[in-house]
């Protein structure tokens, strides 16, 4: 499977509107800290590409990929930074007179249709609570704690032949042992970490920070990790002294597993 990171930013992106910090100003000038909202693009031989989350930067992400049609996708949860592009996707399907299938847990379907009740005629929302098959991979969602922001879903991918596995867990915090279980021993963990060391009270937080993320990777035994959902607190020009098996996501990063 080929994984392309389309967006590696947090809910506000970088630069943040109204923010004049050094990172945002560097990003505003087209620098290396410019980040779109979180999303990924999955490709397997013999399968149509699979969009993972559809945030408000969807249109720009599709243009950068030079993609003219998307037929299927996955959603992690119904927060705006992950579903804000669904209306534009539905409109694009209407313009092409086609439909697309969006897989997500039943709980998320209810929230999406509660906000955008008209999109169902072009985006067919299909429950994937029991998992789906994709190019020899089994893709299974599980519910994870999202701190003050409630809940999200993460996805584990297991290949039936080569034994490879990876997980996408973009929005999580203070996971229970049960919630950590699907992360254990994966070949790759894509994990959301907004800050390097978040200074706010724990009860107000919704994502791991980088320091906690490194510890989670060690605890779960993931062989490699890519940290995404990065806020303007993260300056990719700095050397954070990360372990060799951990890297910060960048827009357009390609991972093959």
From TrEMBL:
InterPro entries: Metallo-B-lactamas, RibonucZ/Hydroxyglut_hydro. It comes from the Bacteria. The keyword DNA repair does not apply. The keyword Hydrolase applies. Residues 36-229 form the Metallo-beta-lactamase domain. Keywords: Hydrolase. It catalyses: 3',5'-cyclic UMP + H2O = UMP + H(+); 3',5'-cyclic CMP + H2O = CMP + H(+). One of its GO terms (molecular function) is hydrolase activity. SUPFAM superfamilies: Metallo-hydrolase/oxidoreductase. Counteracts the endogenous Pycsar antiviral defense system. Phosphodiesterase that enables metal-dependent hydrolysis of host cyclic nucleotide Pycsar defense signals such as cCMP and cUMP. This is MBL fold metallo-hydrolase. It comes from Cohnella thailandensis.
């Amino acid at each position: 499977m080929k994984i392309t990171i389309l967006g590696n930013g947090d809910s506000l992106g970088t630069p943040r509107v109204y923010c004049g910090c050094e990172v945002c100003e560097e990003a505003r000038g087209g620098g290396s800290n410019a980040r779109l909202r979180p999303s990924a693009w999955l490709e397997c031989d013999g399968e149509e590409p699979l969009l993972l989350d559809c945030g408000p930067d969807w249109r720009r992400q599709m243009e950068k990929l030079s993609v003219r049609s998307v037929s299927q996708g996955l959603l992690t949860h119904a927060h705006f930074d992950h579903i804000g592009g669904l209306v534009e996707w539905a409109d694009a399907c209407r313009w092409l007179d086609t439909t697309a299938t969006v897989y997500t847990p039943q709980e998320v379907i209810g929230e999406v249709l509660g906000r955008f009740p008209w999109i169902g005629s072009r985006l067919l929302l299909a429950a994937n609570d029991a998992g789906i098959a994709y190019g020899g991979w089994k893709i299974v969602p599980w519910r994870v704690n999202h701190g003050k922001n409630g809940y999200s879903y993460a996805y584990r991918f297991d290949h039936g032949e080569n034994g490879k596995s990876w997980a996408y867990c973009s929005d999580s915090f203070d996971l229970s042992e049960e919630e950590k279980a699907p992360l254990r021993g994966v070949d790759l963990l894509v994990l959301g970490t907004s800050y390097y060391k978040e200074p706010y009270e724990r009860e107000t937080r919704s994502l791991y920070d980088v320091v906690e993320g490194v510890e989670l990777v060690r605890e779960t035994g993931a062989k490699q990790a890519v940290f995404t959902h990065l806020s303007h607190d993260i300056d990719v020009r700095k050397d954070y002294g990360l372990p060799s098996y951990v890297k910060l996501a960048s827009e357009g990063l390609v991972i093959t597993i």
